[in-house]
Prior knowledge:
single chain; alpha/beta; two-stranded antiparallel sheet; 30% helix; 22% strand; disordered N terminus
Amino acid sequence: MRHSRHVDGMTKLPSLFIPHGGGPCFFMNPAAPDTPSSDPMWQPMQDYLAGIVASLPERPRAILLVSGHWEMPDFTVHVGEHPGLLFDYHGFPPHTYALRWDAPGAPDVAARAAGLLEAAGFPTGREAVRGWDHGVFIPMKVAVPGADIPLAQLSLRRDLDPADHIRAGRALAPLRDEGVLIVGSGMSFHNLRERGPHVVAPSAAWDDALTAAVTDPDLARRADRVVRWAALPHARYAHPREEHLLPLMVALGAGDDDAAVREHRSVVMGWTVSGYRFG
């Protein structure tokens, strides 16, 4: 368990950027559909996700998660009490379209997040009908298999402006002192057209450059380097479109006063994929 920090008598939780895998990759065994059973390639990522809650200074009272699979014109919070699931992946075995993750929503956290964003000048929408996409329920089925931590989802803003997503994360940072774990769920490399051995070298070079920017000990310089992510080596090879990288911006902004560490690195389909912790 990591060292706890206390602010006004409360434990301050970190913010995280996690990889959410590919489709329902951790749940491919039809004989045990609700039990993580990834193949060896995905096992290190699965193990990382499974250990997240135990690694925290205390168990969160709720999670605020921003997924690379939900974009809206303005930042939007899901205020539903019992969201369903949105099976937004294609071509997988039938049993993967009957998965369950029945955690309750966290409308109080959603309302608090909306208030913080609006106070920072961001118009913020509310949504109560949309199901949780697989950027939510697939990694959370691994991380919180008992579905016993309430969760509120936050959208990306469709313009994918990195500076504003960092600024939104900064606005949300007070939630970390209120028992809420802020999670960005995406993939640090996401180019579905490129898979195999030829991807290994450029994806590793991209990952090294991204990690150097994200973990820069100079916090002001860190934010500036990450905002300029597209100038890093192999950036557009790693992200032809950056929706899977933008959750990192929110997590970084929420942890803007803390050092960052890369706490996960694995290779899947030739991609080097990393996860980061702030605080």
